[in-house]
Amino acid sequence: MDIAELETTAALAQIELGEGDLERLGTALSQMLAYFDTMSALDTEGLEPTTHALVKDNRVRPDAVVSAGLADDLLDQAPEREDRFFVIPNVL
Amino acid sequence: MTDATPAWKRFRARLTDYVSYAQQWEKKIGSFLSFRPDQVPDSAVAGPLEGLPFGVKDNIAVKGFPLTCGSKMLADLVSPYDATIVERLKAAGAQVIGKTNLDEFGMGSSTENSALGKTNNPWDTARVAGGSSGGSAAAVAAGLVPFALGTDTGGSVRQPASFCGVYGFKPTYGVMSRYGLTAYASSLETPGIFAKDLDLLETVFDIAKGKDDNDQTSLDAEMMTPRPVKTIAILEDLADLDPAVKSVYDQTCASLQKLGFELVAVKLSTLEYAVPAYYTIATAEASSNLARFNGIRYGLRPVYAENHEHLVRQSRSAGFGNEVKTRIMVGTYVLRSGFQDQYYTKAQKVRTLIRNDLQKVFDRADLLLTPTFPTPAFVHGDRSMNEFQQKLADKFTVTANLTGIPALSFPAGLVTGLPVGMQFSAPAFCEGRLFEAARRFAETFAVPDCPGASTEWSH
Question: Out of 1.10.15, 2.60.40, 3.30.1890, 1.10.20, which CATH number does the structure's domain A3-40 have?
Answer without folding.
Answer: 1.10.20
